[in-house]
Amino acid sequence: MERFNSEEEAFEWLEDNGYSEKPGWREFAKALVGITTDDRLVYSYERIVECLMETDNMSDEDARDYVDYNVVGALNPHIEESRIIIHEI
Question: What is the pTM of this model?
Fold first, then answer.
């Protein structure tokens, strides 16, 4: 699985692979781990937490609380363009 080191690297990959028009979370670009067969962006929960800890200096617990409430809690799976968040195993 590819791991992006910067948001520029992630968005460059999206552009190079024909996904430049996909709406994405710029602040969580490094957490992008895939694209579904119906072209929805897939993000890693753990990597989103890492992004928040790195950019906003949050503790692990605060970052997880933020993701649970503000990111996962805001997703609407009934919207065609909805993003997907997974837990990596």
Answer: 0.83
